[in-house]
Design goal:
- The chain is built from 5 helices and 7 strands.
- By secondary structure, the chain is an alpha/beta fold.
- The protein has a single domain, classed as Rossmann fold.
- Helix 5 links the parallel strand 4 and strand 5.
């Protein structure tokens, strides 16, 4: 996420942070390899929480570089989206301010990336219970919105999140994909009651089964 944030926006989960080009190269590369199994001739990619566009141009330039690949970036921060539109142009990338209409028009997607956006950080660094500031139900609601825009057989990539997809009711529809490549994660993870886990899960790429 960008430092150009609007912490008062009720749609926003992560209110602070930074972004840069190619932040998660191992995860991006693994997702691209897996996506080509079902989309060899082009894929529709969503960068959820695209901030100022660095992730989108990274995906379009270094990973999903097929001429039929399309990358869509959405963010709740209108100022960040305008920076992306003016400063990160790419002929296969489009940016939108988050909303149901733009997601429905651009989707459904073959791959959705939610990288370091489904978390509250650094506020949760020393907490043992985050239910008051980031309830599990809000995580479930956001994952459900993403699931509705993902094709069957598509990939949902969630990295650096406070909760785990396989704790949600959506777990029946997804299969974790085991990959050796691991990018570092900073945020702590919590159970469905908001209590801190002792160990962080390495699952981050999930294929939609139904």
């Amino acid at each position: 996420m960008s430092s150009a944030t609007n912490a008062a926006d009720p749609r926003r989960i992560q209110t602070r942070g930074s972004t840069r080009h190619n932040r998660y190269p191992k995860t991006f590369a693994a997702a691209e390899r897996l996506a080509r199994l079902t989309c060899p001739n082009g894929a529709r990619i969503l960068s959820f929480g695209c901030s100022t566009g660095e992730e989108c141009v990274t995906l379009a330039g270094a990973y999903f570089a097929h001429h039929n690949d399309r990358v869509f970036g959405v963010d709740v921060d209108g100022a960040a989206v305008r920076i992306a539109q003016s400063g990160r142009p790419h002929d296969r990338v489009r940016y939108f301010e988050s909303g149901d209409v733009c997601l429905d028009v651009a989707g459904p997607f073959d791959v959705i990336f939610a990288m370091s956006v489904l978390c509250v950080w650094p506020e949760t660094r020393d907490l043992v219970d985050i239910s008051a500031i980031f309830p599990f139900e809000r995580f479930v609601a956001t994952c459900t919105e993403l699931d509705q825009r993902l094709k069957v057989g598509g990939l949902l990539v969630i990295h650096n999140a406070n909760y785990r997809l396989m704790q949600t009711p959506l777990k029946r529809r997804y299969q974790p994909v085991t990959v050796r490549e691991r990018d570092s994660a900073l945020v702590h993870q919590f159970d469905s009651k908001g209590r801190r886990h002792e160990r962080r899960s390495n699952q981050r790429i999930f294929r939609k089964l139904a």
